[in-house]
Amino acid sequence: MSCGTCSEKTKQGASAALGAPTATGGAGAIQHCPNCGGFMPGSGSCHNPQCQPGGAIDDADSLRARKTPRPSAAATKKRFDAAIRRIENHEQITGPGTLRLADKTGKTVAHEAAAHGQQFTDPEILKLADKKGWTVAHQAAIRGQQFTDPAILKLANRDGASVAHIAAGHGQQITDPKILRLANTDGHSVAHTAAEYGQQITDPKILRLADKRGKTVAHVAASLHGQQFTDLAILRLATSRGETVAHWAASEGQQFTDPEILKLADKNGWTVAHSAATRGQQITDPEILWLADYAGRTVAQVVSSFRKAAAAATKIRFDAATRQIENNEQITDPEILRLADTDGETVAHRAAEHGQQFTDPDILKLADREGWTVAHALADHGQQITDPEILRLASTDGWTVAHSAAAAGQQFTDPEILRLAENSGVTVAHVAAERGQQFTDPEILRLADYAGRSVADVVSDFRKAAVATKKRIDAAKRQIENNVQITDPETLRLADENGWTVAHMAARRDQRFTDPDILKLANQRGTTVAHVAADRGQQFTDPEILRLADYAGSVADVVSDFEARLRAIESAA
């Protein structure tokens, strides 16, 4: 049995150990921690860890700090704006606390940093989203950052637009079928976006993915990047309006011959054949041509309308190109060079006639309705042609490029080329002989046209004519040197072996001409009498004469050069 004093002490010790208030005698004073307000033992030291030295709260100042409210909206905005200015000054922001600062729309500093090209890898930062669900990862993807983590690619805003949608739209190749199937609220999948930006998709299951209007990935691939399909099941896929993949593919130029595909119609009765006709596909099957939509418009009518519209558009472009050529501009675009007028004469023909040279076989082979090729035009103007395949190109009357080249003075030794004959039997050798080429091979000399005139006859006639012509040219030269004006057109047209006419010689001695036929006389290099006259100071205003061109330039160029020389002389004087 213990005494009362010991018993009281034991109670006080137990109370102190439990942190409960102690009393001496009847009513002891309750002890509270001045920091946290909790009970303290008799030792006077609070057992709360936060009140221990080094803890979060250990004095009156710490207590005030703990009770200080969170930063105000104004303070947060100030820190946000300061961070934005740092970003605009191309500083990198790395502090997580700063990166998480957001404006009233929920856009964080990290969003702005990503928009300025800063890249992030921390998933917690990438997942930060504004009030519309637009994440930092979305913003980074716009700036070209690529992601492979499916969790990041799947992040979506409130409209369902995922990071994968943005990444695919900025060139990232997405191959994971699960990611490709992600769709926004309109049903527009990542695969749709990938196809829009040129990714080739061949998986039939992915190609069949459709948005809420029934537009499949195949529709997008066919219409925007001309991906061609042959699988009938894919071609028959249709939108809610009945427009099949075949319709969209035909509208982009894919051609179809299968009647079953051509007959596919949308909800307005517009068939694939109608779409193909709008792109210029030639359709001749009467059954297909009579197909009509619900407004009664047949495929035949579409074909006719296309031809008229195409002809009008072609004429506008052809005329524009012709004006460029007449202004001595070079045309190099193959598509423009192939434009043709109603007679089949192409822009390339016009360019060749104005001295532009070509070597591309595809351009050289372009022919008008009479078979006259660009190569013919070039050969006529003195360009040397050596490719046997090109030399054999013939017009409808059998006149080959080699004939034209020989007529312009090009000489040939290949017997196969010399034997080429036009429809009346005149060979290249005949034409070459007329231009003065000499032959000694008996086999070539015996070649005869259908009138029985042999190459030997032409050689003989040329020699006789050449002697007579030379005499007449020499006589005309003497007259010119004696300042006698030559007016006889026949005499003015006499030419030597290089195509240099008496008119050229007269113009060089300052005789003036106004007859366009005389001014257009050209030697083998295309230099006209007008060129020579302009070089001697004769002025021209006729646009047709000014546009005459040899391989050095137009008459207008010569006029300009003469005026420049004249100004230089006047300045020197």
If you had to describe this structure to a student in words, what would you say it looks like?
With 573 residues, this protein is mainly α. Among the domains are: 331-460, Serine Threonine Protein Phosphatase 5, Tetratricopeptide repeat (Alpha Horseshoe), CATH 1.25.40; 485-572, Serine Threonine Protein Phosphatase 5, Tetratricopeptide repeat (Alpha Horseshoe). It has 35 helices and 2 strands. The chain has helices spanning 4-18, 60-67, 73-88, 96-99, 109-115, 123-126, 136-142, 150-153, 163-169, 177-180, 190-196, 204-207, 217-225, 232-235, 245-251, 259-262, 272-278, 286-289, 299-326, 334-337, 347-353, 361-364, 374-380, 388-391, 401-407, 415-418, 428-434, 442-445, 455-481, 489-493, 502-508, 516-519, 529-535, 543-546, 555-572, and strands at 549-550, 553-554. Residues 1-30 and 54-65 have low confidence and may be disordered.
